[in-house]
C-alpha cells in the first residue's frame, strides 16, 4: 500500500516543476553560453538568486552564472558572443554581458572576507563550485544548476529551506556575517522581499554582531535599505531591522520613534504609526514602487522624539516636528550617500506633510491654495498621497472628515490649475520687463521687484500686463 507524499515533498515537487519550466525558457541563451565554456575546457553553472527565483517561478531576465574560468578568460570567451559587454565589476571577478534581451553576470568561483578594519571585501578565487557555494549568504542562494547538462547542485539543503520559506546560512551565521556583514542587511531585505522567515540562530547572530555593519560602506548599506523599502512587505523587514539592533547603526531615527507611551496614552505609537503610513502610501502608488514617497512616509515623523513635550493640561505636543524632521531626514540621507535630488525631495515632503491640517473644512483662501501648490512644486502628487496616508485614526468619522476635506482641497487645486496653470506660477512680468520698465540694470533690486510681483500673483491670481506695470511702479516709488 503506497503512502501519500508529505506536504513538504509535495512542495518540493512543485518548486522543481516550476524550475524546469523556467530553465527551459532561458535554455537557448544559457546552453549556448555553457557550450562555449565547455569547449574551452571550463565549467559554467547558473547560480544563486537565478536558481532560487527559477524554483519560485519568478525568474526574470537577469541571469547569474559562476565559473572556474578567471575573469580575463571570461572576457575572451564572452566578447565575440555577447551583444554588449562591461567589466566594471572585474576587480571582484565579475563580467557583465547582454545577450538576446538577457542581462548576464558571470563570476569566477570566489571567496570573500573582511579585514576587521576594512570597508572593502578581499577577493580570492576558488577552484570548485562547492567552495564557491559554501561562501554564499544563504542556503536558498547556495544552489546551482551545472550547464549544459542541467545537473542540480544543492550541498546545503537550500531546496528544502526554500520550500519552507526559511533563511539559513550554509555555514554558521557567525562565519557568514564575519565574511561580509552586509549579509545581515540582506537577511532583512529577503524577509520582506520574499516573505521568508529568518531562522532563530540567524537572528541571534545578527543581534550579537549588529555592530559589524559599521565597517560596510554607506553606499552598500543604502542599496540594501532601498531594496528593503521597495519590497512588497517592508514592515516585516523593518521590524527585523529594529529588533536586531541593526537599525540603531544604520538609521537610528527609526527605532527612536518607539516612544514610551504616557500613562494616559495621549499620543499614538509613532513607530507603528509610521509603518502603517508607509503601507498606506504603498497602496496609493500608481506606477510601481516610488522610493521618494516611501522614504517620506517612513521618515515623516522622525522629528517627534526630539520635539515631544508634556503640556500642563496633560496633552502631549510635538510642535514643529515637521521642520525638525526635515533637517534630520536631510542629515541621515546625506550620511547614507543618497543623491542630492532625492535628499531634497524627501526632506521637502517631510517638511510639508502637516501643511494640509491648516485647511480645516475649507477655510483657505485661493492665495493659500496657490502657496500650497507652489511650495509643493513637482512633489504635489506625492504630497497628496503622503497626506492621505498619514491618517491612521480608528475613528471612522474623523477619518471620513479628513478624506472629504482633502477631496475638497484637491478639487479646488484642480479648478485653480485649470484657470491659472498653477504649476508654472510666475509673476506677470519677467526680469527683462522689470528692468525695461524701471530703467535699471541687473542687480538685487530686480530680484526684490520680481519677488514682490510673485507675492501679488499668489495673493490675487493673474493680474494682466497693465495692472502688473502699475503695481510695479507703485512699489518702486515706495522704495525710492
UniProtKB/TrEMBL annotation:
SMART domains: HDc
Cross-referenced Gene3D superfamilies: Beta Polymerase, domain 2, cca-adding enzyme, domain 2
Enzyme Commission code(s) on record: 2.7.7.72
Keywords annotated in UniProt: Magnesium, Metal-binding, Nucleotide-binding, Nucleotidyltransferase, Transferase, tRNA processing
Keyword Membrane: no
GO molecular function: CCA tRNA nucleotidyltransferase activity
The protein's enzyme class: transferase
Top-level taxon: Bacteria
Domain HD/PDEase: 266-480
Cofactor: Mg(2+)
NCBIfam families hit by this protein: HDIG (TIGR00277), tRNA_CCA_actino (TIGR02692)
Protein name listed in UniProt: CCA tRNA nucleotidyltransferase
Amino acid at each position: 500500500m503506497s503512502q501519500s507524499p508529505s506536504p513538504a515533498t509535495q512542495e518540493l515537487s512543485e518548486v522543481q516543476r516550476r524550475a524546469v519550466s523556467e530553465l527551459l525558457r532561458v535554455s537557448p541563451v544559457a546552453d549556448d553560453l555553457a557550450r562555449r565554456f565547455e569547449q574551452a575546457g571550463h565549467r559554467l553553472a547558473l547560480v544563486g538568486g537565478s536558481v532560487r527565483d527559477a524554483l519560485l517561478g519568478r525568474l526574470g531576465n537577469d541571469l547569474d552564472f559562476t565559473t572556474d574560468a578567471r575573469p580575463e578568460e571570461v572576457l575572451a570567451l564572452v566578447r565575440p558572443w555577447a551583444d554588449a559587454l562591461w567589466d566594471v565589476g572585474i576587480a571582484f571577478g565579475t563580467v557583465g554581458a547582454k545577450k538576446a534581451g538577457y542581462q548576464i553576470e558571470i563570476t569566477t568561483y570566489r571567496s570573500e572576507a573582511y579585514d576587521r578594519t576594512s570597508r572593502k571585501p578581499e577577493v580570492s578565487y576558488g577552484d570548485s563550485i562547492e567552495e564557491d557555494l559554501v561562501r554564499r549568504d544563504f542556503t536558498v542562494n547556495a544552489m546551482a544548476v551545472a550547464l549544459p547538462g542541467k545537473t542540480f547542485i544543492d550541498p546545503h539543503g537550500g531546496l528544502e529551506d526554500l520550500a519552507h520559506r526559511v533563511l539559513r546560512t550554509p555555514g554558521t551565521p557567525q562565519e557568514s556575517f564575519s565574511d561580509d556583514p552586509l549579509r545581515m542587511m540582506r537577511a532583512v531585505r529577503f524577509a520582506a522581499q520574499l516573505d521568508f522567515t529568518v531562522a532563530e540562530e540567524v537572528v541571534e547572530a545578527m543581534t550579537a554582531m549588529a555592530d559589524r555593519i559599521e565597517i560596510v560602506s554607506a553606499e552598500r548599506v543604502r542599496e540594501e535599505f532601498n531594496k528593503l523599502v521597495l519590497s512588497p512587505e517592508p514592515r516585516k523587514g523593518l521590524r527585523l531591522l529594529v529588533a536586531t539592533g541593526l537599525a540603531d547603526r544604520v538609521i537610528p531615527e527609526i527605532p527612536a520613534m518607539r516612544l514610551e507611551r504616557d500613562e494616559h496614552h495621549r499620543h499614538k505609537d509613532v513607530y507603528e504609526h509610521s509603518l502603517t503610513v508607509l503601507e498606506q502610501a504603498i497602496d496609493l502608488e500608481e506606477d510601481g514602487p516610488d522610493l521618494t514617497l516611501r522614504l517620506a512616509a517612513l521618515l515623516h515623523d522622525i522629528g517627534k522624539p526630539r520635539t515631544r513635550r508634556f503640556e500642563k493640561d496633560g496633552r502631549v505636543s510635538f510642535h514643529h516636528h515637521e521642520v525638525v524632521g526635515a533637517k534630520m531626514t536631510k542629515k541621515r540621507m546625506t550620511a547614507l550617500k543618497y543623491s542630492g535630488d532625492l535628499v531634497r525631495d524627501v526632506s521637502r515632503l517631510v517638511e510639508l506633510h502637516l501643511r494640509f491640517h491648516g485647511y480645516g473644512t475649507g477655510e483657505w483662501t485661493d492665495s493659500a491654495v496657490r502657496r500650497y501648490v507652489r511650495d509643493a512644486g513637482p512633489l504635489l502628487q506625492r504630497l497628496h498621497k503622503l497626506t492621505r496616508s498619514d491618517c491612521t485614526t480608528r475613528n471612522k468619522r474623523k477619518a471620513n472628515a479628513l478624506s472629504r476635506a482633502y477631496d475638497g482641497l484637491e478639487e479646488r487645486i484642480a479648478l485653480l490649475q485649470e484657470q491659472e496653470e498653477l504649476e508654472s506660477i510666475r509673476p506677470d512680468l519677467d526680469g527683462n520687463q522689470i528692468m525695461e520698465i524701471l530703467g535699471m540694470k541687473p542687480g538685487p533690486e530686480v530680484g526684490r521687484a520680481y519677488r514682490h510681483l510673485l507675492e501679488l500673483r499668489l495673493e490675487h491670481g493673474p493680474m494682466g500686463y497693465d495692472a502688473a506695470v502699475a503695481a510695479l511702479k507703485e512699489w518702486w516709488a515706495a522704495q525710492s
